[in-house]
Amino acid sequence: MNGPVAARPRWQRGWWTGAQALRSPNHGLRPAGAVVDLVVLHSISLPPGVFGGDHIAQLFTNRLDWSAHPYFETIRGLQVSAHFLVRRGGQVQQFVSTDRRAWHAGVSAWQGRPNCNDYSVGIELEGLEGGGFEAAQYQALVPLLQALARRHPLQAITGHEHVAPGRKHDPGPGFDWAALQALPGYPPGLRLGH
After folding, report:
1. Which residues form a coiled coil (predicted)?
2. What is the pLDDT of residues 18-75, one digit of tens each?
3. What phi and psi values does residue 177 have, to the nearest 5 degrees?
4. Active-site residue 124, yes or no?
5. Catalytic residue among 124, 126, 129, 161, which?
6. 18 CB contacts (<8 Å, ≥6 apart)?
7. What is the CATH number of the domain that holds 167?
8. Bridging pattern class, strands 156-159 and 38-44
9. Domains in the chain, number
10. Which of 134, 125, 135, 130 is nearest to 173 (CA)?
11. What is the pLDDT of residues 51-67, one digit of tens each?
């Protein structure tokens, strides 16, 4: 044997050990019988266009100092979350168990089914709506999607813009769906849902 083998990330009550856990209070029960079969991709930066720092995590955990930046006053009191955040450098943070309903999609529908929060996993990408994303983020998405596909019967991955058209525009034209799908290890049964 050449040395210890690194343990493959696994699940513990809907928490993926491959991510840094930062628990958000902004979640609820999924409806009885809900099947998690959709991934919704989003983009976020706080303030818009500024990357790095802890503002996104602070927003999702209700610890954002609203007076720290003029933009924050425009979202004062907002209570939102996502299951995961993929930072610019590829680090993955988790805020809500995938067994729970995160508050990420809002008023939404996919293939005629309303309330996407009920049956989806929300993944935020640190980025500006319409802007480009880093190679490290695409690379980090693959093992996360693989892990999600092992835990849930995922059918499709789509954007916030596709489940809330006209209301939301993220992740936007800067996200390269074909490049993600072409990466080695991309779950073969996970179709693009837009």
Report:
1. none
2. 999 999 999 999 999 999 999 999 999 999 999 999 999 999 999 999 999 999 999 9
3. -65, -40
4. yes
5. 124
6. 9, 92, 143, 144, 147
7. 3.40.80.10
8. parallel
9. 1
10. 130
11. 999 999 999 999 999 99
